Amino acid sequence: MDTGKIIGLSILGAFILLIIFMIFRSLLIRRPKPEQTDYSPRFIEQEKVVAHMIEAIQFETITLPNNEIENNIFLEYHSFLERTYPLIMQKAEKTIINRYSVIYKYLGSDENLLPVALLAHQDVVPAPDEGWEFPPFSGHLTEDGYIYGRGSQDMKSQMISALEGLEILLAEGKIPKRTIYFCFGHDEELGGRYGAKKIVEFFKEKKIRFEYVLDEGGAIIDGKIMGIDNKIALVGTCEKGYADITLEAIKEGGHASTPTRRTAVGLLSEAVFKLEKNQMRPYFSQPVKEMLRDIAPFMNPFFKFAIANRDILSPLLKKVLTLASPFTNCIVRTTIAPTQLFGATTPNTLPSKAKANVNCRLNTGETIEKLISHIQKVVGKNISVKADDKSKNPSPVSNTDCDAFRAIRKTVYEAFDGFIMAPYPFIATSDSAYYHQVSDNVYRFTPLLKEESDANRIHGKNERITVDMLVTATRFFVRLYENTCL
Ligand SMILES: [Zn+2]
């Protein structure tokens, strides 16, 4: 046999061995045994929860642009909560934070246990009547079981179902061992600086830490995009960072009838175009690795093979994820999205300054500094690059190997039969980002199983929730208390 043939056969042999090794690895991924559970869905007095939800929507708790504004609506909303949940509120200790945020502390019987914090923001984004099928603050209930209204999803439903859940248990005479804090901020929609931030300062001052913190967020997605037949409940263990970056080009201005060779608008457009083409590199952050680890056992053999051999197939896998969908793209990289352009104020003027805003969401592990340096490198030295002072780095990543996370997983499995649960990096922002300072276990999960068309109504027209979604969310919270607080 000649040497060429021997080398060829050796390469082929090594390749076959590698494939066998890779198949073997994918066979090692097994589904975890389903946990034993004594859970059976509990009866929920639907009319009661629905009536409370409708009333909650009717308070126009629109985020105040600044904290100096006198507005009784938030205080009236607190009174509504206090008369609606008498068993909680008669015993709860109430603390008002920075005028309109509120904490209700329900003391558990065992003070040695770390407390838990359930978050929900009271504020909602504005909702002009136009384009709504029913007035946005009416809480209208349709015959086919939809409750319409601003805040019905984001996020008075979570607040109502969390309170409802504890009230139900107290009515049954159950006494929580673990102390439960309900923390209701009032300006989440504008960044939580007057609400959540101040609440966390209060906890830090009192040296109060939490077993876990649960806020809105996460996602329930159709597993099909990952080759899975079930729904996947994604629980946010961290939040991507956020930055608004201003790009600015300066050139001589003048009359548009005698343009210079290069204009500020031309330079800026080129910079924006280059930036779109040269995004930051994708990589698997810790929460994404954990997500893939937890969903891999449920994937079809092809996907399982790819995930099991992530280290070998990494470049290919990243490529596929960045191209598969905007969702899979944004969980593996920092996204850079141009959102605003500013030039001259009149159509026949060459502006001396052209500006663009690019909205960036930073992948876990990235920093604002690294982002700026990437952008500057791409757009070149003729463009100035500056981050807005509200920009923030990604949050720390919460633990998934702990009792709190396991209990939340168990609760998700019980309340949502047949679901798969996995951690993931939450791609939007929430009040919970502040709470990493007071807990190692900060999670984001909204227990609402919604149609995609309904999810798109958040912050838009005709936001609505179904009665079924509300009842399931209430069951989720009842079970969460049973699993973690009783
Ligand atoms: Zn929200």
User: According to CATH, what is the topology of the largest domain?
Assistant: Aminopeptidase
Termini Cα gap:
75 Å
What portion of the residues fall into strands of 2 or more residues?
15-25%
Name the ligand types.
Answer: zinc ion
CATH level 1 class label of the largest domain: Alpha Beta
Q: Low-confidence segments, ≥5 residues, pLDDT <50?
A: none
Radius of gyration: 26 Å
Arithmetic mean pLDDT: 93
| Number of discrete domains | 2
Gross morphology: globular
Described by strand count, sense and barrel closure, the largest sheet is: 6 strands, mixed
CATH superfamily of the largest domain: Zn peptidases
- Report the CATH architecture of the largest domain: 3-Layer(aba) Sandwich
H/I helix tally:
15
- What percentage of residues falls in helices of 4 or more residues? 25-40%
Give the total of beta strands: 17
Structural class: alpha/beta
- Order of strands, main sheet, comes to 1-2-5-3-6-16
Give structural notes:
There is one protein chain. The chain has helices at 3-28, 46-57, 73-84, 86-91, 156-171, 196-205, 264-277, 286-295, 301-308, 310-324, 326-332, 368-379, 403-415, 452-455, 467-484, and strands at residues 93-97, 101-106, 116-119, 146-148, 180-184, 212-215, 219-222, 231-239, 241-250, 254-255, 335-342, 349-350, 353-362, 383-387, 420-426, 442-444, 464-466. Helix 1 (3-28) crosses helix 9 and helix 13 packs antiparallel against helix 15 (467-484). The mean pLDDT is 93. It folds into 2 domains: 46-217 and 428-484, 3-Layer(aba) Sandwich (Aminopeptidase); 239-387, Alpha-Beta Plaits (2-Layer Sandwich), CATH 3.30.70. The protein has 486 residues and is an alpha/beta fold. Bound molecules: zinc ion (ZN). Zinc ion (ZN) is lined by residues 121, 154-155, 188, 216.
